[in-house]
Amino acid sequence: MGPHPAVAAIRLAVRRVLHDVLTDRADNSSAVSSVRAGEPPLVLVACSGGADSMALASALAFEAPKLSVRAGAVTVDHGLQAGSALRAAEVVTRLRAMRLDPVESVAVTVGREGGPEAAARDARYAALDAAAERHRAAAVLLGHTRDDQAETVLLGLARGSGTRSLSGMAAVSGTSGRYRRPFLQLDRQTARKACLVQSIPVWDDPHNTDPAYTRSRLRHEGLPALEKALGKGVVEALARTAQLSRDDADALDTWAANVEESVQDDSGQLRCAKLYVLPPAVRRRVLRRAVIAAGAPAGSLFARHIEEVDRLITGWRGQGAINLPGRVEARRQGGRLVIRQG
Ligand SMILES: Nc1ncnc2c1ncn2[C@@H]1O[C@H](COP(=O)(O)OP(=O)(O)OP(=O)(O)O)[C@@H](O)[C@H]1O
């Protein structure tokens, strides 16, 4: 008898990603310094102890040896709840029981920038990046599911963001495509079921059900209400929207990169008349690129900032300089847009 369908589904998803990692590694072996010739590649799973990442860890532990890949794990202790260190130690024990090696727990200090969720995420990714470098890992797997993707799209929609934000999380992201999300096409229930039938204990993060958090409200109230109103297929449809938006956003980014030079004068300043005739989606991207090139941190730059700069082109009525994150300033001067750091 074969494995339970949920277990078969998670293993297949991981197998596919491991194949991709090995193929990419073979293609880049001369370019990527972290790859050591002849050494079996190491793939790490980022594991919170929750159902999604425990299912991911179990599938990685099963599939990796068949492809001569070493499988390890990292759990990050955010130190935000009483007893978090103990829980991290427990997760480590469970991961070692799956014969993953190396397995480590990394304690981080969570700052305040951007609110508690964003600060925890920044600290977590910094720790995962450092672990990947330390172990020269070929990839780090994350347990985001199709449900997480649907939530991300809805959050972007509610913020009034553009196509880039609606495109949610990429299947491959990070430095040299380090982060992989094998479960992006799988629903959360499949991961949970796979843990259940394999008797894998999981830890349910109380934050995930705490109505104080936007994502938690969306998960437990918003999406069920949408499913009731629009039907069960809404999660899948939102995930499809993410993929379509990603393709659109990629095409528009390429367009913007290609026209950039044609709107600059000899000293590299942007010519307002040339910008004016561009389609708004392309113009806003050109402006965003220019603002980032001048030194504004991409993460602090929001749609409203770029809209304000855009009004120097489309709604010009002699307004003054616009202050942007990273002490960058944009002003219109004699038919040119001057964007520079103060
Ligand atoms: N504390 C952590 N340590 C290591 N990896 C983490 C941690 N928290 C989250 N991750 C990684 O990020 C993914 C998404 O995290 P998120 O917080 O959105 O979901 P989650 O509900 O914690 O997921 P899971 O059910 O896997 O615990 C996880 O599946 C996992 O791969």
From TrEMBL:
The keyword Disulfide bond does not apply. Residues 43-221 form the tRNA(Ile)-lysidine/2-thiocytidine synthase N-terminal domain. It catalyses: cytidine(34) in tRNA(Ile2) + L-lysine + ATP = lysidine(34) in tRNA(Ile2) + AMP + diphosphate + H(+). It is an enzyme of class 6 (ligase). It is found in: Cytoplasm. InterPro entries: Rossmann-like_a/b/a_fold, TilS/TtcA_N, tRNA_Ile_lys_synt, tRNA_Ile_lys_synt_N, tRNA_Ile_lys_synt_subst-bd. The keyword ATP-binding applies. Its EC number is 6.3.4.19. One of its GO terms (cellular component) is cytoplasm. Residues 270-337 form the tRNA(Ile)-lysidine synthase substrate-binding domain. Its main location: cytoplasm. ATP binds at S48, G49, G50, A51, D52, S53. Keywords: ATP-binding, Cytoplasm, Ligase, Nucleotide-binding, tRNA processing. GO terms for molecular function: ATP binding; tRNA(Ile)-lysidine synthase activity. One of its GO terms (biological process) is tRNA modification. It comes from the Bacteria. PANTHER family: TRNA(ILE)-LYSIDINE SYNTHASE-RELATED. The N-terminal region contains the highly conserved SGGXDS motif, predicted to be a P-loop motif involved in ATP binding. Belongs to the tRNA(Ile)-lysidine synthase family. HAMAP family: tRNA_Ile_lys_synt (MF_01161). Ligates lysine onto the cytidine present at position 34 of the AUA codon-specific tRNA(Ile) that contains the anticodon CAU, in an ATP-dependent manner. Cytidine is converted to lysidine, thus changing the amino acid specificity of the tRNA from methionine to isoleucine. NCBIfam families: lysidine_TilS_N. This is tRNA(Ile)-lysidine synthase. The lineage of its organism: Bacteria, Bacillati, Actinomycetota, Actinomycetes, Kitasatosporales. The gene is tilS.
